[in-house]
Amino acid sequence: MAHTKLDPIDRKILAELQGDGRMTNVELAKRVGISAPPCLRRVRTLEEAGFIRGYHADVDPRLLGFEVQVFAMVGLHSQAEADLVAFESLCRAWPLVRECHMLNGEIDFILKCVAPDLSSFQSFLTGQLTSAPNVASVRTSLVIRGAKDAPGVPFDVMEDRLSQSA
Fold it and tell me: Roughly what angle, to the nearest 10 degrees, separates helices 36-48 and 8-19?
C-alpha cells in the first residue's frame, strides 16, 4: 500500500487514529463515514501494511519525575555502515535515549534524552555516551521548555498536495 494507493477513507482513518488512538472502532467508523466491520478491516490492513506502527499513551515525563530533557549532538570518528549500525544499537540499549536520528551535515546523530535530574544525565553522558566506541564529540543542549510536540504527519498538508495533483 504505497501512499498514493491510500484512498480518502484510509487517510481519514489514519488522521483520526493519529489524533486519538483510543477511540472505539464504532466511533472511528462514524467519524470516517463507513460502518464498523469494513472500518475494522481497513484498520487491520493499515496495521499489517505498516502504516500504523503501534498505539501509545502520551505520558508526561515531568509528572513521572523525569525533569531533564536534553538533545545530544554526536559526531563519530567513522561513518562506515558497520560503525553507524553499532552506534544505533548502543542507542537502542540506553534507556535515557528516547530518540536517535542519523543526520546529514556537521553532526552524525541527534539524540533526545530524558533523565530524572541533571546529575543522572551527566553520569550517562560521561560514563556511557562520550566513552562509547567511535564517539568523537558530543554537544548537548538542555531543553528549557517545549512549544510543540506533534505526533505523526500533517494530514491536511497531504490532502492539499493530493488535491492539487489531481
Answer: 80
pTM over 0.90: no
Taking the C-alpha atoms of residue 54 and residue 128, their distance in angstroms, rounded to an integer, is 30
Q: What is the mean pLDDT of residues 131-157?
A: 94
Give the whole-angstrom CA distance, residue 19 versus residue 74.
32
Query: What is the CA 88 to chain-centroid distance, rounded?
Result: 15
142 forms bridges with which residues in the sheet?
A: 70
Q: Where are the alpha helices (DSSP H) in the chain?
A: 8-19, 25-32, 36-48, 81-93, 118-124, 155-165
List pLDDT tens digits, range 5-19.
899 999 999 999 999
> Domains of the chain, with CATH numbers?
3-57 (1.10.10.10), 68-142 (3.30.70.920)
DSSP assignments along 119-143, one per residue: HHHHHHIIIIITTSTTEEEEEEEE-
The C-alpha cell at 73 is 549532538
Model confidence pLDDT, tens digit, residues 113-128:
999 999 999 999 999 9
**CB atoms inside a 10 Å sphere around CB 72:** 23
